Amino acid sequence: MSTPSVQPFFHADSSTWTYLVADPASGDALVIDPVLDFDAKSGRTSTKSVQSVLDAANAQGLKLRWVLETHAHADHLSAGAWLRVQAMGTQLGIGEGIREVQKTFQPIFNLGDDFPVDGSQFDHLFNDGENFRLGQIECEVIATPGHTNDSVSYRIGDALFVGDSLFMPDGGTARCDFPGGDAALLYRSIQRLYELPENTRVFVCHDYGPGGRPVACETSISAEKRDNIHVRDGVSEQDYVVIRTTRDKTLAMPALLLPSVQVNIRGGQLPAPEDNGIRYLKLPLDQL
User: Fold this and answer.
1) pLDDT tens track for 85-138
2) Contact assessment for residue 33 and residue 19, using Cβ atoms and an 8 Å cutoff
3) pLDDT score at 1
4) Can you give the residue ranges of every domain in the chain?
5) Conformation bin of residue 112: beta by default, left when phi > 0, alpha when psi is -120 to 50
6) Rounded CA gap, 223 and 168, in Å?
7) CA Rg, the chain, in Å?
8) What are the residues whose beta carbons fall under 8 Å from the beta carbon of 250, sequence distance 6 or more?
């Protein structure tokens, strides 16, 4: 199986990993889960972090073909829209389940009937099992709902980018208590991933350094099946649902959930300026 080059970038404020993935033979590349810097205290945005990803691609002479989102994130604002503009010809893609996420949050943010809930903010909506190519490398989209309706994993050669569905083995799995979340569904999604070759490289979207260890981004299907604290071999669906739902009840909402979701269902575009030229994010009260 082909081996793409994978360059990780860590966004410390949100504990997010962004990946620059390339086919060494052709120089074609893509970016997975780029982050827009956002300071909630001041409302300031910045492209400093994503600029470093673009600079690395340019320095290596790579040709960006795709910006891929694993889902509409609830813990950081996406820089996908910005990156699509900066890298001419790049397409922005996400799983087709984004339509359900948009339908869920359209009324919560009172976005109005003119807000599209057909995923048209993105260039391409991937179906489960859809194939595409990165240069000479074969790629596959695997729908992995459970954390969110639109969650997908991208298999690019021997590398698998799992979004929030799996963390490093000592971090377990994603929470399932957001609107549209379903712990039983996530268990089944993870079982699909566990059917991949055991030496498949697995790249996670977040790592929080459990126990104070240094943050990490890469593991393997073999290691996840053997060591994942929530869903290793021998853990039944029923057991996992109990583990996951019990833990979810103890978790606070992500600090940036409300700003993030309303930007990310727009494909990373900020809301349009109002008549005073200022953009605004909404904070719906007593809804979540």
Assistant:
1) 999 889 999 999 999 999 999 999 999 999 999 999 999 999 999 999 999 999
2) yes
3) 66
4) 5-261
5) left
6) 9
7) 18
8) none
Closest CA to 165 of 156, 182, 8, 247: 182
Instruction: Write out the chain in H/E/C secondary structure.
Output: CCCCEEEEEEECCCCEEEEEEECCCCCEEEEECCEEEEECCCCEEECHHHHHHHHHHHHCCCEEEEEECCCCCCCCEECHHHHHHHCCCCEEEEECCHHHHHHHHHHHCCCCCCCCCCCCCCCEEECCCCEEEECCEEEEEEECCCCCCCCEEEEECCEEECCCCECCCCCCECCCCCCCCCHHHHHHHHHHHCCCCCCCEEECCECCCHHHCCCCCEEEHHHHHHHCCCCCCCCCHHHHHHHHHHHHCCCCCCCCHHHHHHHHCCCCCCCCCCCCCCCCCCCCCCCC
Angle at 239 between CA 184 and CA 237, to 5 degrees: 35
Contact 134, 24 (CB under 8 A): no
What angle in degrees, to the nearest 10, is found between the helix axes of 183-193 and 237-248? 120
Q: How far does Cα 217 stand from its chain's mean position?
A: 13
Q: For residues 266 and 257, give the distance between their C-alpha atoms in angstroms, rounded to a whole number.
A: 14
Report, at the CATH architecture level, how domain 5-261 is classified: 4-Layer Sandwich (3.60)
pLDDT per residue over 9-64, tens digit each? 999 999 999 999 999 999 999 999 999 999 999 999 999 999 999 999 999 999 99
